[in-house]
């Protein structure tokens, strides 16, 4: 047993441990987009290497059906499962529309197509729902974690979805005590979790995969035997309709489905909802001294109140005239305008200001001879059209501006495996924005100066020469 990198003090709560892990990952720059990692299953650096170790497990190789959570750091685990030609089940995000999606790749799918199917967008495009009444046997479960101990005690991000998913699978007969549970984490996320923090509804794990290790926990703790209804309340049932359906089924079967007290009736000290970030950490401030969280909330509120802007597509665009900007669900913008260098270098921001939360994606590996119109078509086909596209074909790259980190994350998922004219393109968050806006300043680029600029270096800089901004 190795000494944990992060030391947990006696008396620490689950939230203390979560905060400690999240802070450590951020302070040591151990995560990829999306950042910051707080309140998330961290998309840690080395996730691909850790997920690849799944194929080394005898239990995985002998399995037929594998359930993998939908988070970004487990995307490679979904790909490994599809590549091994196993049945892949992915829970619907936050269980809003059901329990599972069964991923159904195209007949004879290539490796590139399987990568797309394993992405968040692919889960939407290549899946069929699986209901509670489906006769499914799950052989192996892959979950994400914020922290996990070598004894198999796991801590998630605090919303209980992995525990509920497992409990529902027990109720529908899809899993039992013999089902193997695997979690994929960074080495620093393996910590000593006090055993008294484990509760009856907590899912324990049998294997921990990290970029450097495969840990068999030999956990002595039983896994949940179903949904513990007293741990839930009416508010949770309203948010997750499939839970209500399961409760009705179990009530008809004569089981005790008495719910716990709603949040407003809970006694002090028994709150189950997670604390707000402001109560645990001093909010970060922007350059003007205003808390970023406050500014973000105000910007979001203004965005909701602002009516959808109807526009006419620019000449050469293939969209319908009068189409609104309300093309968000999985689409990241679609309001692209083109500017040639002969226009004097003026940015197209006078008609439409970019939001303060704009997030830029770097797209590299663009083949010589590719036209910007071809890239625009590919972006639309993948529902990843940005608010603005900066084209630098001579440097074999482009920069895509999206309205916020969430829109950029959807676009990054959609662009995985993109190949044009026989060349594979690389999509990643621009270097200057990895890890979030640490300075609190807007990502909006200033208007170009009339003074000559030195040649920039790296995928976070945008050259003025030969660029087209759309």
Unreliable spans are 264-352, 436-458, 461-468
Q: Architecture of the largest domain, CATH level 2?
A: 3-Layer(aba) Sandwich
Cα end-to-end separation: 54 Å
Strand order of the largest sheet: 4-3-2-1-5-8-9-10
Radius of gyration: 24 Å
Structure explained in plain terms:
- With 470 residues, this protein is an alpha+beta fold.
- It has 3 domains: 14-216, Rossmann fold; 229-265, no CATH class; 289-436 and 443-470, RRM (RNA recognition motif) domain (Alpha-Beta Plaits), CATH 3.30.70.330.
- The protein is built from 13 helices and 17 strands.
- The chain has helices at residues 14-27, 47-52, 58-61, 75-83, 111-118, 120-125, 161-171, 234-239, 241-252, 277-280, 292-305, 372-381, 405-415, and strands at residues 65-68, 87-91, 100-103, 127-130, 140-143, 147-148, 154-155, 180-184, 207-209, 214-216, 359-364, 388-392, 397-402, 419-420, 423-424, 426-429, 468-469.
- Helix 4 crosses helix 5.
Chain-wise SSE layout:
Blueprint lengths: L13 H14 L19 H6 L5 H4 L3 E4 L6 H9 L3 E5 L8 E4 L7 H8 L1 H6 L1 E4 L9 E4 L3 E2 L5 E2 L5 H11 L8 E5 L22 E3 L4 E3 L17 H6 L1 H12 L24 H4 L11 H14 L53 E6 L7 H10 L6 E5 L4 E6 L2 H11 L3 E2 L2 E2 L1 E4 L38 E2 L1
Helix pairs in contact: 4-5
